[in-house]
Amino acid sequence: MKNRFCVYALLVIFFVCGGGTAFPEEALRIAVVTGGHGFEEAPFREMFESFSGFEFAFVELKEESEIFEDITNWPYQAVVLYNMTQTISQKRRDNMIALLEDGVGFIVLHHAIAAFQDWPEYRKIIGAKYWLEKTEENGVIHEKSLWKEGVDMKLHVEDAAHPVMVGVNDFIIHDETYKNYDLEPGNHLLLSCDAPTSQKEVAWARTYRNAKICLIQPGHGKNAYANENFRRLLRQAIQWVAMK
């Protein structure tokens, strides 16, 4: 009862003050998963470490998906996927689904949209399919998805009232665009982009089983990591997916 009262009090302060992010008394434990794609590690870590209210564990995959090998005593409220690894065994698939059943939230950040290409359920989890190669599937030809670095992306907030988007304004980010990925039904659009090299839908929220999912397409490098609107978006997305 005492803990519940404390959380309630924090939420009241949050809404009365009209800004910031309310957190429970204990920091939320978050796994940040990398591997299979290069990135600028120092500014990436600094971005996460600037977020208060969290304890981040940076997990670099060595065997493609080993974080899901044994989920006994799983310590994390949420997972940020920033990997582009591909191999995931049936056991690890089942364990990831079990975490989602238990309400563990997932952020799918930038190139993680293209992870686990041979696992059909992954697209249902994250809400999209990025095609690394031209592919025929069930008699339908899917053209290879596209990417372009160094684009000034004008991002438009589609739902300013969503918890992920509170306080985030339309902004420009110098980043890498993706285009020609397929979308699953059930995505709640948060951010859109009208750049010719970008898909319109660049951030969304959804649910899978009992878990909250948020996919954020931008996030390629230090220009994105340093952008204050991007930081706020990512921080609030992590909090949203982690809180049951």
Describe the overall structure.
A hairpin with a 2-residue loop joins strand 6 (135-137) and strand 7 (140-142). The protein has helices at residues 2-17, 41-49, 90-101, 120-126, 222-225, 228-242, and strands at 28-35, 54-60, 78-83, 105-109, 128-129, 135-137, 140-142, 146-157, 171-179, 182-183, 188-193, 201-208, 211-216. A 9-stranded mixed β-sheet has the order 2-1-3-4-13-12-11-8-9. Strands 5-10 form a two-stranded antiparallel sheet. Strands 6-7 form a two-stranded antiparallel ribbon. The protein is globular. By secondary structure, it is α/β, with parallel strands linked by helices. The protein has one domain (28-242): 3-Layer(aba) Sandwich (Rossmann fold), CATH 3.40.50.880. It has 6 helices and 13 strands.
Architecture blueprint of SSEs:
Blueprint (H helix, E strand, L loop, with lengths): L1 H16 L10 E8 L5 H9 L4 E7 L17 E6 L6 H12 L3 E5 L10 H7 L1 E2 L5 E3 L2 E3 L3 E12 L13 E9 L2 E2 L4 E6 L7 E8 L2 E6 L5 H4 L2 H15 L2
